[in-house]
From TrEMBL:
Gene3D superfamilies: Chorismate lyase-like, Winged helix-like DNA-binding domain superfamily/Winged helix DNA-binding domain. Pfam families: GntR, UTRA. Coiled coil: none annotated. PANTHER family: MANNOSYL-D-GLYCERATE TRANSPORT/METABOLISM SYSTEM REPRESSOR MNGR-RELATED (PTHR44846), MANNOSYL-D-GLYCERATE TRANSPORT_METABOLISM SYSTEM REPRESSOR MNGR-RELATED (PTHR44846:SF1). It comes from the Bacteria. Keywords: DNA-binding, Transcription, Transcription regulation. The keyword Coiled coil does not apply. GO terms for molecular function: DNA binding; DNA-binding transcription factor activity. This is Phosphonates metabolism transcriptional regulator PhnF.
């Protein structure tokens, strides 16, 4: 949108609200595509002939309505509909995202080898001290960060997992390359918490923002635990769907 837009300063309607309504109408009419970044506050302020504080108030109101999404350090974006995320025996991020006409991708944030403590040993059914790969990943849909996941897998079973994931960007393919052709979800536990500093930076959300936490155990075709994962998802970007048996 270019050029200066006229406001009716004698209408008895607050200027920020007029700007909000104009932007809302443009979003509804397709003037801004879903997921696209809104112009900078300074550009919008120049367009309407107001100060940035007035624009900021209009944007805050649209964000509160769910029409806009503020990503820390990246800007303000036109919000897409929440990703419908089914939780069942076959939960695959790439398949879920692709099935909703979005483009999935994954990025390796970090990895290390650590010994299994009591909790991890219980989840993976391995002896205490067993060397595990700890894999931290960021999963994205249409360039929007959706989930940060931390996974633990027995190193001896998938020794090349880190390199394979870094190359292909999906756990399913990385496991396939390691000789594990299929796996299924044995259980999922869902809770919520406030985002921590590191995850807030990766997800592009403010501190204090809620995240959905999904703790899950995946098993191989023989029913042997393969992967324990703790996923944190931006609460306003996904909608969990729990399917009945």
């Amino acid at each position: 949108m270019t050029g200066q837009s006229k406001l009716d300063r004698a209408a008895g309607i607050a200027v920020w609200r007029q700007i909000m309504e104009m932007l809302k109408g443009e979003i509804a009419a397709g003037g801004y595509e879903k997921g696209s970044r809104l112009p900078p506050e300074s550009e919008i302020a120049s367009r309407f002939g107001v100060n940035r504080h007035t624009v900021r108030r209009a944007i805050a109101a649209l964000t509160a309505e769910g029409l806009l999404r503020a990503d820390q350090g990246r800007g303000t974006f036109v919000a897409s509909a929440p990703l419908s995320y089914p939780i069942n025996a076959r939960t695959r991020f790439s398949e879920i995202v692709s099935g909703q006409d979005r483009s999935p991708s994954g990025r390796l944030i970090g990895s290390e080898i650590e010994d299994a403590d009591a909790l991890l040993a219980q989840h993976l059914e391995v002896p205490l001290g067993t060397p595990l790969i700890r894999l931290k990943t960021l999963r994205v849909a249409d360039s929007v960060p959706m989930m940060v996941g931390t996974s633990w897998l027995e190193q001896a079973r998938v020794p090349n997992l880190v390199a394979d994931y870094a190359e292909c960007g999906t756990i399913t393919e990385a496991l396939r390359r390691g000789g594990i052709k299929d796996y299924s979800r044995r259980e999922s536990r869902i809770s919520a918490e406030l985002v921590d500093t590191e995850d807030a930076q990766q997800l592009g959300i403010a501190l204090g923002h809620p995240v959905v936490v999904i703790e899950s155990v995946n098993v191989d075709p023989d029913g042997r635990p393969l992967q324990y994962t703790r996923t944190r998802a931006a609460a306003d970007r996904i909608q969990l769907v729990v399917n009945g048996e």
